[in-house]
């Protein structure tokens, strides 16, 4: 699918299988999500622009590569996005972080923002939006809408699982935002869960229900 990168590294696929298993504990699920986010983070940052800086090694002077531009932003869609965020911050400790809280209005079904905190200069930074499950894509679309309204122009979307329906809706709404995922699953069920999926990512991560 155009604009979608499936990270099919064997370690990602192996860890994902354990995460899908309903018998995996909360602690195990959280640990695996952190591990897998390092591998997904490696892929989503693969083509970051580099420049060079002059440094002194103990032996001589060299022009050495460093990341170009302002620090990137990880934008976590609350609450499940935080599970991916932690590993990503291990990988890019200097990254800035945005948090976006959305809930669904029961009557209008519109995604209502209840929390938004982000660096002020979003237009100067790469913004990587993180949410483990791209299901209906309602919250992902709304999160990107909110970020664009605050000036973001260079965005990527990172998830663990995506449903074909979610990819289609997200891509129609934001064709400029590439998607990175560990798997494209079969379909959504009537309640908006991904099949075969892994259940509710937030509940699995935090032991709630
Ligand atoms: N959100 C989840 O946590 N799981 C799904 O299957 C769909 C949306």
Automatic annotation (TrEMBL):
Substrates-to-products reaction catalysed: UMP + diphosphate = 5-phospho-alpha-D-ribose 1-diphosphate + uracil
Key words, A-Z: Allosteric enzyme, Glycosyltransferase, GTP-binding, Magnesium, Nucleotide-binding, Transferase
Note accompanying the cofactor annotation: Binds 1 Mg(2+) ion per subunit. The magnesium is bound as Mg-PRPP.
Residues binding 5-phospho-alpha-D-ribose 1-diphosphate: 79, 104, 131-139, 200
Catalytic EC class: transferase
Co-factor(s): Mg(2+)
EC number: 2.4.2.9
Domain spans labelled Phosphoribosyltransferase: 6-208
Protein's job: Catalyzes the conversion of uracil and 5-phospho-alpha-D-ribose 1-diphosphate (PRPP) to UMP and diphosphate.
Protein name: Uracil phosphoribosyltransferase
Phylogenetic lineage: Bacteria, Pseudomonadati, Pseudomonadota, Alphaproteobacteria, Hyphomicrobiales
């Amino acid at each position: 699918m155009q604009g979608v990168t499936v990270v099919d590294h064997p370690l990602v696929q192996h860890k994902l299988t354990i995460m899908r298993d309903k018998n995996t504990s909360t602690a195990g699920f959280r640990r695996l999500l952190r591990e897998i986010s390092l591998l997904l983070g490696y892929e989503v940052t693969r083509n970051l622009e580099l420049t060079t800086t002059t440094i002194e090694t103990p032996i001589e002077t060299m022009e050495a590569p460093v990341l170009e531009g302002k620090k990137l932003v990880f934008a976590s869609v609350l609450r499940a996005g935080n599970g991916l965020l932690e590993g990503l911050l291990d990988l890019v400790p200097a990254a800035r972080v945005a948090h976006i809280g959305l809930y669904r209005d029961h009557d209008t079904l519109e995604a209502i923002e209840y929390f938004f905190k982000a660096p002020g200069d979003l237009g100067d930074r790469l913004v990587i939006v993180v949410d483990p499950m791209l299901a209906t894509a309602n919250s992902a679309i709304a999160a990107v809408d909110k970020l664009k309204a605050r000036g973001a122009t260079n965005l990527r979307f990172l998830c663990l699982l995506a449903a074909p329906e979610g990819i289609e809706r997200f891509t129609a709404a934001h064709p400029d935002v590439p998607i990175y995922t560990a798997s494209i699953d079969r379909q959504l069920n009537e309640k908006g869960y991904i099949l075969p999926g892994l259940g509710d990512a937030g509940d699995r991560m935090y032991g709630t229900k």
